[in-house]
């Protein structure tokens, strides 16, 4: 595993690239926000050291954006010397673009929503926070993954440790928004509940977390579960709940081969 110094050096290089891209976004008046690993690293400065201990390296810089700004976004990346993946553009039917810079670092741009096992909708949400998508959407980005892996577990654990859980979006994981979304979608609710339990078990068993940090994260998970459970469920949610696991409640996601 790389040393902490090596993690910091890699992060420094990625942050420099992040900052240059976000500066260009601002100059061109584009509404584009960070998601993925670098967004978690950006928004969790106090506890990102746990990412190092878990061996979490950065590999790309991904964004959420609005489809109405596609042309401006493509022009920006091409002007900066990036190449667009034409195969991905065709394969994803314009819902997702992939660009590669001269050093081989890629940027995935997800338009209007993240379509994976469950949809994370960005409509009207990208103005809430900057330079990343809102904290509740960062949370959704991870808990929507059916086959969640260690890097996703550590990202979510660090996000929970860094931020409070409660109403509102200002440096807060918006439990009102989360519970509202899940109260209308049984499938998303089911995957989220499963993954919150997996995150709890991961935190309990990870020997690199301090006890006070474990307690904090587990307490926030317990609070979130309580808020989600107490939120009145829609008619659609209740009807789907009757079917339960007899029918698959998530979409399969095929990995894009670069």
Average pLDDT confidence is: 95
Strand content: 5-15%
Rg over C-alpha atoms, rounded to the nearest angstrom:
18 Å
- The number of helical segments is 11
Overall structural domain count: 1
Major β-sheet annotation: 5 strands, mixed
Order of helices and strands: HEHHEHEHEEEEHHEEHHHH
Structural class determined from secondary elements: alpha/beta
Q: Give me the count of strands.
A: 9
Please report the distance between the alpha carbons of the first and last residues.
Answer: 25 Å
Low-confidence parts, pLDDT < 50 over ≥5 residues? Answer: none
Percentage of helical residues? 40-55%
The spatial strand order of the largest sheet comes to 1-2-5-4-3
From the spread of the alpha carbons, the general shape counts as globular
State the oligomer. single chain
